[in-house]
């Protein structure tokens, strides 16, 4: 008490008429220099400054700071407002399949700079840089794994690799995955996130649209289910091919889904776009997708749908037909 009073008196005396809350920040020992306000800026109430960078992430929707560990534990979903942050393909697979059940396919397949594309940086340099920074070979991981008791052919895209763009490798890996699904009698699940076809591969990337859809047609002819999950953002060539032709199409909350961007559409049609245009919620209302599923519920919902969509097939297998 005595000490507090002493501090207050001391502060008032030192700072004169300046409006600084007394006794909140004790003046530093060398306060006789007259610069008593300076140290307060670096310490005192501003605790955020003492926290090392990289531990917190600011949520772009609610602007709250979320502890990174908490964000990871919550599958990269803001615990305060349920904003879905981007999640890597590996983290996604980890969150969906049973432990150690995932067998990756074509893990070493890499893109070739077939057009010898030159821009600000060459395609070859870009590929190398992204392979280093993401620890991925390309923008999709494919393989066979188990979700509950169901074996599935699972493909998961990763936006951090060149904007999840679909080049020859993405198309080929997905096609092989779908063909493996058809051959083994497995449902296919593809979780998309993409800016569209990969411009560095020109027409070769556009051909992937037809190739993946053809493989899915054969898969469908074998009466096998295909579930497409759209995550933020799923656009352009990917949305115009395999992402939009699922037997069941799910989306994550708030995901931007569409072909061309809203600005291009607005300029082309010269019309005002309705609020919420190209969001998952808007598309659900207009019948383009079947449901919106929060990330934390995706595994249990997929289990439920897989059970429902494969029941006839399991019956046939059970009676040996
Ligand atoms: Zn938030």
Secondary-structure topology with pairs:
Blueprint: H1 2-15, H2 37-42, E1 56-58, E2 65-67, H3 68-73, H4 89-96, E3 103-105, H5 123-134, E4 140-147, E5 150-157, H6 168-184, E6 188-194, H7 202-221, E7 226-234, H8 236-239, E8 248-251, H9 262-269, H10 280-285, E9 291-292, H11 298-309, H12 311-318
Parallel strand pairs: 5-6, 6-7, 7-8, 8-9
Antiparallel strand pairs: 1-2, 3-4, 4-5
Bound molecules: zinc ion.
Zinc ion binds at residues 59, 61-62, 64, 78, 80-81, 83.
Can you give a write-up of this model?
The chain has 321 residues and is an alpha/beta fold. The protein has three domains: 2-50, no CATH class; 51-85, no CATH class; 88-318, 2-enoyl-CoA Hydratase, Chain A, domain 1 (Alpha-Beta Complex). It is 38% helix and 15% strand. The protein contains twelve helices and nine strands. The strands form two sheets. Strands 3-4-5-6-7-8-9 form a seven-stranded mixed beta sheet, with helices on both faces. The protein has a two-stranded antiparallel sheet with strand order 1-2. α6 packs parallel to α7 (202-221). The chain is globular, with a radius of gyration of 27 Å. Mean pLDDT is 85; it is low at 1-46. Zinc ion is lined by residues 59, 61-62, 64, 78, 80-81, 83.
């Amino acid at each position: 008490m005595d000490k507090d009073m002493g501090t207050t008196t001391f502060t008032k005396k030192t700072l004169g008429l300046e409006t600084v809350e007394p006794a909140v920040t004790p003046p530093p020992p060398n306060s006789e220099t007259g610069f008593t306000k300076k140290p307060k800026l670096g310490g005192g109430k501003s605790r955020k400054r003492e926290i090392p960078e990289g531990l917190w992430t600011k949520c772009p929707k609610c602007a709250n700071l979320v502890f990174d560990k908490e964000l990871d534990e919550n599958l990269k979903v803001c615990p305060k407002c349920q904003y879905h942050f981007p999640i890597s393909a590996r983290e996604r697979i980890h969150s969906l399949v049973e432990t150690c059940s995932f067998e990756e396919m074509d893990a070493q397949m890499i893109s070739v700079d077939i057009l010898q594309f030159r821009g600000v940086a060459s395609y070859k340099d870009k590929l190398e840089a992204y392979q280093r920074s993401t620890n991925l070979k390309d923008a999709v991981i494919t393989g066979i794994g188990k979700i509950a008791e169901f074996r599935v052919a699972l493909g998961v895209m990763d936006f951090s690799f060149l904007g999840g763009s679909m080049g020859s490798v993405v198309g080929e890996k997905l096609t092989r995955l779908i063909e493996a699904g058809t051959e083994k009698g497995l449902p296919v699940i593809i979780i998309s996130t993409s800016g569209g076809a990969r411009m560095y591969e020109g027409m070769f990337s556009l051909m992937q649209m037809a190739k993946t859809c053809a493989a899915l047609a054969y898969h469908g002819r074998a009466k096998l289910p295909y579930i497409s999950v759209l995550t933020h953002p799923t656009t352009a060539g990917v949305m115009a091919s395999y992402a939009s032709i699922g037997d069941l199409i799910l989306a994550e909350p708030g995901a931007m889904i569409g072909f061309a961007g809203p600005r291009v559409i607005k300029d082309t049609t010269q019309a005002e776009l309705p609020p919420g245009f190209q969001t998952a919620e808007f598309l659900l209302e207009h019948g383009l997708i079947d449901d919106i599923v929060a990330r934390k519920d995706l595994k249990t919902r997929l289990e439920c749908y897989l059970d429902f969509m494969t029941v006839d097939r399991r019956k046939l297998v059970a009676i040996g037909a």
